[in-house]
Amino acid sequence: MVIYGWKNVFLKSIKSNKVICPNCSEKATTLFSVSSQHAHVFWIPLFPYRKPIYSLCENCNHALKFRKMPEEFKQEGRLLKTEVKAPIWQYSGLGLIAILISWLIYSGQENKRLNLDYITTPQAGDIYEFKTQSNFYSTLMLTEITKDSVIFRLNDYETQKISGIRDIEKTENYSLDEYSLSREEIKRMYDQGEIIDVNRE
Ligand SMILES: [Zn+2]
After folding, report:
1. How far apart are CA 47 and CA 38, in angstroms?
2. Beta strands of the chain (E only): which ranges?
3. What is the 27 CA–ligand 1 centroid distance (Å)?
4. CA 96–ligand 1 middle distance (angstroms)
5. Distance 24 CA to ligand 1 centre (A)
6. SS3 at position 64
7. Any idea what DSSP says for residue 164?
8. 39-97 pLDDT, tens digit each
9. What share of the chain in percent tops pLDDT 70?
10. Confidence of residue 192 (pLDDT cuts 50, 70, 90)
């Protein structure tokens, strides 16, 4: 269950010496308050999205929401609103999301860089995840590297979903038959996305 909602955080109050209370007709008794409202998910503030304004007469306790205010009250309210900013912590959730996205982009690029490195300097024991001709997924394990080729064993199993690879990637699943491909061909398969990922212990 996702718990979410909205929360008001008080920011500032000022007393206006201009406006006259429409209820008790006293001057300079009205206090204007502004707060910042943010959306939260699991109590983590996501972002502030509005600043509600209220007025309160300290003489007669007459209170008004912004949309019920007479025009001169609204002007005071707008002034106060431009004066104050939502505190930065109300953006925590957005900050976390931005950090998470940057991390995902970074680790994706890092993985690509590593894969290319592994493809160009293969080692025995490297595991290649690849797409089969029937659009399934399987793995192969390098057993020997020569000057121009790699020698490998194929996984006996394949999986329909890429996420299933971790279930079939077991040493005992590799057939004992050995095959070989030129390193050039391996590079071509990687460039064309037939080899999806390379894992090295
Ligand atoms: Zn009043």
Report:
1. 5
2. 4-16, 30-41, 44-50, 53-57, 63-65, 127-131, 137-145, 149-155, 174-182, 195-199
3. 8
4. 45
5. 4
6. strand
7. G
8. 999 889 999 999 999 999 999 999 999 999 999 999 999 999 999 999 999 999 999 99
9. 100
10. very high
State in Å: Cα 30 to ligand 1 middle: 7
- 55 alpha carbon – ligand 1 mean position (Å): 10
Give me ligand 1 centre to Cα 184, in Å: 86
CA of 85 to the centre of ligand 1 (A): 28
Question: How far is ligand 1, taken at its centre, from the CA of residue 17, in Å?
Answer: 13
Token pair belonging to 51:
């600043």
Tokens found for residue 193: 């996305």
For ligand 1, the distance from its centroid to the CA atom of residue 16, given in whole angstroms, is: 12
Non-local (6+) Cβ contacts of 23 within 8 A are 57, 60, 62
List of residues 6+ apart from 194 with CB closer than 8 A: 130, 131
- In this prediction, residue 139 has a pLDDT band, given cuts at 50, 70 and 90, of very high
pLDDT at residue 2 tops 80: no
First to last CA, the chain: 38
The pLDDT value given to residue 56: 97
